[in-house]
Request: fold
Amino acid sequence: MLSYKAPLRDMKFLLNDVFDYQTHYKSLDNGANADPETIDMILQGFADFAENVLAPIYQDADAEGCHFEDGKVTTPKGFKEAYDQFVEGGWQGISYPEEYGGMNLPMSINLVKSEMMGTANWPWAMYPGLTTGCINTLLQYGTDEQKALYLPKLVEGTWSGTMCLTEPQCGTDLGQVKTKALPQDDGTYKLNGTKIFISSGEHDLTDNIIHIVLARLPDAPEGTRGISLFIVPKFIPNTEGEVGERNGVSCGSIEHKMGISSSATCVLNFDGATGYMIGEPNKGLKAMFTFMNTARIGTGIEGLAHTELAFQNALPYAKERRSMRTLSGTKEPEKVADAIIHHADVRRMLLTMKAFAEGGRSMIYHAARYADKMAQGITHGDEAEFEKWDDKLGFYTPILKGFLTELGIEAAKHGQQIYGGHGYIKEWGMELIARDARIATLYEGTTGVQALDLLGRKVILQSKGKIIRDYTSSIMKWCGEFALDRNMRSFVWALTKLCAEWNTLTVRLMLMARKDREIISAASDDFLMYSGYVMMGYHWARMAAVAYDKLENGGTEAPEFYKAKIQTAEFYFDKILPRTSGLAESMMAPSESMTSMDIDSFAFLD
Reply:
């Protein structure tokens, strides 16, 4: 049976010691209430909810799945009760303005909450998780009337939201969207079309579901330039802002999936559904990216969640399971065999999971500071401020989404390996983590799409490599501060070489692309993973530096906590970071070996 314990010690180490969030919060308009006592209360309160309400229903809900009948979806046993407790606790509104019923705390606190919620029970977490993006989109692009009508219920959690992009003929290539929106005399629109893979598109948890839908006006230009964005509620609100008549949107079916079976993934049919435009005509994709970027950060958290859950449950098993004696000699002579945690290869897997979980958490908590600044820009209506921090977060987004979700799959694999045959049995839960982790690399854009976004669009087209130069410059500045620190010498030297190589690789790829147009696509996956490993290395070096300081000058944790941080950092630099060498060599290989083979030569089956 899977269990979950919120890693509050590690969370507080990052929030307080590594990133000094208290100083950060003082720079925010809504940071005054985010004092240490309030943050501790929220962390402990939600940890209790995640550990004792969400985690115990995870496996049983997976076995039961969602039920679909006559267009209605019923969630598994315990989901509705858990959601009602979530609403009663006011958890949905942590980071939203008080005028809409929220607590007006920084966005980063909501992301920390999302980590606990997602690690305890990711499929359940998707229901309120999609609402977050809906709220963010309305806050930035909705009219005052739309905000007043929808946000109080969404922030309260009694209404939920979705993101409706994908259609049967298109996923990532949204230029192929066919759903039509016909203008009406009263200023509304009638939407007709079908959307697929809509998470939380229909369920029994809330009174209303607010769909955010991409569609085309009759005179819209082709491609992505002709997409508009609409609010399409399941029930049209009445003049009092309560649930009114049923709208023309219905659930045609739910998908039978490899994992996240307790999350309803729906086919939604829009048959003359009444919709209300958000933002300007034909500029819906820009507004939708607010929703999508929110979801991509959430997907990065999912990679962290699966890694953490696999590690937490593999560790006690490795301490208890006994097999053979270690090569260096018997460790537990009084037992029939040594616990498998004494074997170096098992330790390799456990340390890999630990390094990925704690390193990924550091990456996300750092990006969360940018999310706080970006949210403040939205609140102020300051487009320039929003764009500034959105650009900074934009560099992180594909790495968090693509890199951390791939690591989540690797961690789930290690968990199964540690359990051996039991890792393949449903009772223990490792196979559930493996199944649920797999979707994270697919939605909101596959790893390949994230890689192309990073290298092709953000690194080369938009910045001509400047984004890498700026980021590595910040790493080098930090390295300079520790250049004479004997404890940090090995970390600093490794990062210095990698920063130089990262810039060199970027320039070489830009030059190669002049003659080999396919090299960007061919190299992008390697480039993304390389970027992720270097970024995580930087975060581990930062954590090691803080741990050394706390050991010398005293900290709030026991010395063993800080020593474990340093040892994990050393493991990461010794055993994980060398992966960059192979990735660097691979990304420099010409694309010809991928592109030269004739399509008909891939297989000879006749």
Q: What stands out?
A: The CA atoms of residues 550 and 556 lie 8 Å apart. The chain has a mean pLDDT of 95.
